[in-house]
Amino acid sequence: MASGCPMMKMKTETEHPCFGGDHSKAGRIHLPVAPGCNIKCGFCERKFDCANESRPGVTSRVLTPEQAVNRVRLVKQHMAEQCGPQLKVVGIAGPGDPLANPKTFETFKLVREQFPEMTLCLSTNGLRLPENIDRLVEYGIHSLTVTINALTPQTGAKVYEWISFAGTRIRGEEAAEILLMEQLKGVEMAAKAGLLVKVNFVYIPGVNDHETLDLAVKVRELGAEMMNIIPVIPVGKFAGIEPPSEATMEMVRNQAELILSQARHCKQCRADAAGMVGHDIDLDGLEAGRLAS
């Protein structure tokens, strides 16, 4: 790639703080209504009731759709009372995969009815994305994050332990090939449907790092507007791996930004994160205080 190539920037402007919006002006909330998952990532270790852990797949408790809407109302009111940034984005990012849980769309329906001004977003592994594109459009989902951690079945077999597809648990390269096919198809369909698409990539040294830039090229071709390269957290199958240094991540993001706009602010948030990116609200304390009053 020629030196001096300009850094790629997103073409679409949005208030969404995870898609390049101003963190000081817009808050977001993740609603943990989706506990079930249809794939097993080697780096995923999900624990409930683990308040000190700040990583995807973790939540203090799973909410019903009704409880989730009440939490939106509470956080919206709290942020308004603080006279600071307003709650702008409501997302569902787990703690499992939202598209493997029917309560995801029940929740979006209630949020859309009661808070029509909110931007709705969803994060998914993409396995069931193609079959749900029409529903995402129907429910007014604005932004979509698809986590793709491999570009070949050979690498995918090292990252994923299994997938559950069409009622069958599948392992190895066959599983990785099916997952990749659905992910890429889903990204293209979502972009063509008008959704703002970001691709997350968990960077695992010695495992999938060699596919980073090729993935950036591929998803750009399919219509993704942003990429988020995040360092592996050493848990689960990769508990003994040494995560990449900040210098390595900076170098990789700089290279990838010659291809596709890069998110550099990601805090690898919990499935129940709320407030400003990097400055989350103490939900347990907030909810306990409201009950006491």
Question: Under CATH, the topology is which?
Answer: TIM Barrel
State which percent range the strand residues make up: 15-25%
| Number of discrete domains | 1
CATH superfamily: Aldolase class I
Indicate the topology:
Blueprint: E1 26-30, E2 39-41, H1 65-81, E3 86-92, H2 103-114, E4 119-124, H3 133-138, E5 141-147, H4 153-159, E6 160-165, E7 168-170, H5 172-192, E8 196-203, H6 212-222, E9 226-231, H7 246-256, E10 274-276, E11 279-280, H8 283-292
Parallel strand pairs: 1-3, 3-4, 4-5, 5-8, 8-9
Antiparallel strand pairs: 1-10, 2-6, 6-7, 10-11
Helix pairs in contact: 1-2, 1-8, 4-5
Short description:
By secondary structure, the protein is α/β, with parallel strands linked by helices. The chain is built from 8 helices and 11 strands.
Note down, in words, how this protein is organized:
- About 2% of the residues have low confidence.
- The protein has an 8-stranded mixed beta sheet.
- It is globular.
- Helix 3 links the parallel strand 4 and strand 5.
- It has one domain: Aldolase class I (TIM Barrel, Alpha-Beta Barrel), CATH 3.20.20.70.
- It has 8 helices and 11 strands.
- The longest helix has 21 residues.
- Helix 4 crosses helix 5.
- 45% of the residues are buried.
- By secondary structure, the chain is of the alpha/beta class.
- The termini are far apart.
Defining key terms:
TIM Barrel; alpha/beta; eight-stranded mixed β-sheet; 293 residues
